[in-house]
Amino acid sequence: MSKVLLPDTIPSEGEQIFNAAGIEIIHGTGRSAEKMMQEGSDASAVLIGTQNFDAQIMDSMPNLKVIARNGVGYDAVDIDAATARNIKVVNTPFALNDSVAETAITELLAISKNIFWDTKSIYDGQWNYKKTHPGNDVFGKTVGILGFGRIGHVVAEKLAGFNVKIIAHDPFAKATENVEMVSREELFVMSDYVLVHLPAIDSTKHSIGMAEFKKMKETAYFINMARGVIVVEPELVQALQQHEIAGAALDVFEEEPLSMDNPLLELDNVLLTPHIASNTIETKRKMAIDAANDIVAILNGDLAKSVVNP
Length: 310
Ligand code: DGY
Description:
- By secondary structure, the chain is an alpha/beta fold.
- The protein contains twelve helices and twelve strands.
- It folds into two domains: 112 residues, 3-Layer(aba) Sandwich (Rossmann fold); 176 residues, NAD(P)-binding Rossmann-like Domain (Rossmann fold, 3-Layer(aba) Sandwich).
- The longest helix is centred in the last third of the chain and has 19 residues.
- The protein is globular, with a radius of gyration of 21 Å.
- The site of (2R)-2,3-dihydroxypropanoic acid (DGY) has 6 residues, from loops.
């Protein structure tokens, strides 16, 4: 009987797919490499979050045929090592576009209207904090989408009713009815909001730093829902401290969980969330279903919906 290691709990709809396929579930107790190696030693499949999954872990699971990423980004999985071991890597890119796009727009609105700090001011007994910290309207502004893939397209569709100009940069994408394609430089210069929706690959890692923040307007906001490693985080901190830009809304960080001594935690022009862009009941359910179906397909020798290393 094939076994699947679940280091995290998943919605019951995903478990039902394994049960129906006769795959035994190993309920893991955590994401650390040690735990996964210990608990998954006889697993044929594993369903992971954003944790690293390297060659050493693969070698501790000699029966492993498929690594499923419960999400779209697979930067933490050593794809070459998996391919060399004939292990398929699958992900769930069709399940989360709406959720991530909704979160990106939520954070855009929240940082513009200073929602977190105004809310906190009530708890702190500082009702009049708002007088020195007015928000900004989004209406009439320019939103720049860096990385115009599936998620970027959904963001643009959802922004259609906001009366904003939408520009995007992506060497592989074309303009749409409401989105004008611009150069990378133009995107940073023109945007009032820069939204990052890039994958974390060699060419994008640490690709946004002080040079880009200096190009941005002093009144502009930087919003990253993709991966922390795309940004040179100390330079972002510096840009925020020096008010090169107005603020940042960040859902992802170079190191997660964010360490309590991270200087971002000392800034009041940021909105920080703990990697929640796809963390909704509906999307978690859809991701579990897609990942479980692809695991079953691979183990049965059938075609999977989303294989990263076909
Ligand atoms: C993804 O899908 O990669 C998200 O960042 C959540 O894991």
